[in-house]
Design goal:
The complex is a heterodimer. By secondary structure, chain A is an alpha+beta fold. Chain A has helices at about 10-20, 90-105, 110-120, 165-170, 180-195, 205-215, 215-225, 230-235, 280-295, 305-310, 315-325, and strands at about 1-5, 25-30, 35-40, 65-70, 75, 85-90, 120-125, 150-155, 155-160, 175-180, 240-250, 255-260. In chain A, about 30% of the residues lie in helices and about 25% in strands. Chain A has an eight-stranded mixed sheet, with helices on both faces. The chains are: A alpha+beta, B alpha/beta. The site of flavin-adenine dinucleotide has 24 residues of chain B, from strand 4, strand 5 and helix 1. The site of one iron/sulfur cluster has 13 residues of chain A, from helix 10.
């Protein structure tokens, strides 16, 4: 990897360069919540934040998008070539993007996701953890790839890790200075301090087996409060489920095929024609969700969103600890 | 290439099979494996996964559609000359090569005959490559039997031994039972297992309604049939057909699979490993 240094005073210059590349989306405070939103000015961005409400995946896989339009039986694809910049993405969310890459970029690749991913710069940034974060337990507290630039806050300046060709071109601007071992050591020290603030821990070794053998009563107890609302899925950076439907214009000949985020916690997710439901109750659906996140492979990146935003107060880590039999 | 973009296929023929099922011939050639499926689109209505019910050795390609909802009803309204959108073929299909040199035991219930017909046609078109071919077919009554002409013809042929079970007796079934009581009976498809000797060297190919698998699997297990020689094709809700939308996922804990991409054909070993695969 290549490294550089950027003084905070020069950040607005980098911001202008990013704007020259495409529309810039950054964390912005809105009604007490932080969300990724288009910004025109660096001042609008909230650079020190804990987590956004929706993960940055919404830029690659929008909550709702038209994928095809049709007239009669002739289909036309709706691919978007817009350039964009995702500024201020935390390590856990970058790791979440990498997990989604494996789904949507693996053959046959999803062209919609792939185009947006290719046309979007990802600029990583040091995070501000809180008591719900547990990225260090799932190996996603540090981003080794998946970004164009990663900015490590060193106080007055940033150590910049350069992760791509586009990142390299940006770093050629005169306001980037040379950096090396000294800055990396300082960044590592600060990383160490930040890591120490992440107190939540979960041991995921053999979690899949534990989930698989958890008994019926255990599941019922674990899911008793669940409203099956699907919020945990919608806020998760690694949830991939989507639903598809066709919409017609009034003259019936034309229309569009639309896809939307879906949620495996909703009743109809595994419902087929004739009324047979493969995951009829919240028990089967939670079993599926946990298996998907930490079963065969670890797809959870420890961002804490599902716990923070669950209206029923269900705590993801506590649920897993209970299954492990180590709950407080 | 955009995998989600359907291409057009012209409808060549539409034939009523039963009061609820139609056979639709499509002007398309996909070089598929028996057991694979396509996503069929009717613009403005939606897409549905449908098995290809013909063998790649027979042209044109055919699908057999049961009318159960929006898309399938729209497919039932098609007439020759109309167009549909198709994507695929998707899924793994049955390992026709691997099964060569062995007996085939096809077990099907109801609409499960659709994907198995492709296997059957393929084996008949490569008749010398397979040993005995047994078809165990369970229907509700004669009116709901699929591919009636083909199956009745096979009943009299030496190429394949057909066993038939029916749940409701009607004239045709009654006569069939009288004609060959050793191959036709009243009851569900598992009852037919009492009429056949299972060669442990055979391969079993199974397709039927979701409730059927558990019982059929048990028949095989009770007779010590090797689970790795059982191939079963599964149905789940599907949207993308290519391992992205995660609607079709099965399993729990340590083993999770996409039915669309890792299946729809799974083995008896998968059934033992993957929680909930066969209920
Ligand atoms: C691998 C596979 C092969 C299949 N092969 C055949 C076949 O050869 N012939 C046949 O008639 N049917 C087949 N089916 C079932 C067929 O896909 C459903 O009957 C059909 O999707 C129902 O759609 P609908 O719009 O008519 O019904 P609706 O109830 O209006 O369905 C609404 C939506 O639910 C989903 N859905 C509902 N039921 C199913 C289901 N059983 N499987 C998957 N998605 C479902 C669809 O995505 C659909 O858009 C197959 C299913 C799978 C998974
Ligand atoms: S957010 Fe909470 S209440 Fe809603 S489905 Fe998820 S676990 Fe259940
Ligand atoms: S499962 Fe919960 S904690 Fe893990 S990545 Fe998803 S939202 Fe974050
Ligand atoms: S149907 Fe979409 S993942 Fe299988």
């Amino acid at each position: 990897m290549r490294y550089a240094k950027l003084s905070k005073a020069d950040f607005p210059k980098l911001f202008e360069a990013l704007k020259g590349y495409g529309e810039v989306f950054a964390p912005v405070e809105e009604k007490g919540k932080v969300v990724f939103r288009r910004v025109e000015n660096l001042k609008e961005a909230k650079l020190e934040y804990t987590r956004t409400l929706l993960p940055p995946k919404k830029l690659f896989l929008p909550p709702e998008e038209e994928i095809l339009s049709f007239e009669g039986e002739t289909y036309t694809e709706k691919l978007d070539g817009k350039k964009a910049v995702l500024l201020g993405v935390h390590a856990c969310d970058i790791n979440g993007i990498l997990k989604l890459d494996r789904v949507f970029l693996d053959a046959p690749r999803d062209e919609y996701y792939a185009r947006r991913r290719e046309n979007t710069l990802v600029i990583g940034l040091t995070c501000v953890p809180d008591k719900y974060c547990f990225c260090t337990s799932v190996g996603s507290g540090y981003a080794s790839s998946g970004f164009d630039l990663f900015l490590h806050d060193l106080g007055k300046e940033y150590l910049v890790r350069i992760g791509s060709g586009e990142g390299y071109r940006l770093s050629k601007a005169e306001y980037f200075k040379e950096a090396g071992e000294a800055e990396m050591k300082l960044a590592a020290k600060l990383e160490e301090r930040r890591k120490g603030r992440i107190k939540r821990k979960i041991n995921l070794a053999g979690m899949g087996d534990l989930i698989e053998t958890e008994g019926k009563e255990g599941w019922e107890e674990l899911t008793r409060k669940c409203l099956a609302c699907g919020t945990c899925n919608l806020v998760c950076p690694t949830c991939q489920c989507y639903d598809v439907s066709d919409l017609l214009t009034l003259d019936i000949r034309k229309g569009s095929r639309v896809r939307r985020w879906d949620s495996c916690m909703l009743k109809r997710h595994a419902l087929v024609a004739g009324g047979l439901n493969f995951r009829p109750t919240v028990v089967e659906r939670t079993l599926n969700r946990l298996s998907c996140k930490v079963g065969e492979e670890v797809r959870c990146v420890g961002c804490g969103r599902c716990t923070v935003y669950c209206p029923a107060g269900i705590d993801f880590v506590e649920m897993l600890s209970t299954i492990r039999g180590v709950a407080k | 290439m955009n995998e989600l973009l359907p291409r057009q296929a012209k409808v060549l023929k539409v034939e009523e099979q039963t009061p609820i099922e139609k056979l639709i011939q499509l002007d398309a050639s996909l070089n598929h494996q028996p057991g694979q499926f396509i996503e069929v689109s009717v613009a403005g209505v939606g897409e549905a996964p449908i098995s290809i019910c013909s063998s790649p050795t027979r042209k044109p390609m055919e699908i057999c559609v049961r009318k159960v909802g929006r898309v399938t009803s729209a497919l039932h309204r098609l007439s020759p000359g109309d167009k549909v959108g198709i994507r695929g073929p998707y899924g793994n299909g049955f390992p026709m090569e691997k099964m060569k040199g062995h007996d085939l035991i096809l077990v099907s219930g109801g609409l499960g005959m659709a994907p198995l017909r492709g296997v059957l046609q393929y084996a008949l078109d490569h008749r010398k490559d397979y040993k005995e071919i047994l078809l165990l077919y369970g229907i509700r009554d004669y009116s709901l039997m699929l591919f009636k002409d083909e199956i009745m013809k096979l009943m009299d042929s030496k190429d394949c031994r057909v066993y038939l079970s029916y749940e409701k007796e009607d004239e045709v079934c009654k006569n069939l039972r009288k004609k060959c009581p050793e191959r036709v009976c009243e009851g569900v498809v598992t009852k037919l297992f009492g009429m056949v000797d299972l060669n442990p060297d055979a391969y079993a190919v199974v397709c039927g309604p979701p409730v059927m698998y558990r019982f059929v699997f048990k028949e095989f297990m009770d007779r010590n049939f090797p689970p790795e020689r059982i191939y079963m094709t599964m149905e789940r809700r599907m949207k993308c057909g290519i391992g992205k939308c995660r609607h079709c996922v099965v399993g729990a804990g340590t083993s999770m699979r996409y039915v669309c991409k890792d299946g729809p054909v799974f083995t008896g070993v998968d059934a033992l490993q993957i929680k909930g695969l066969i209920g």
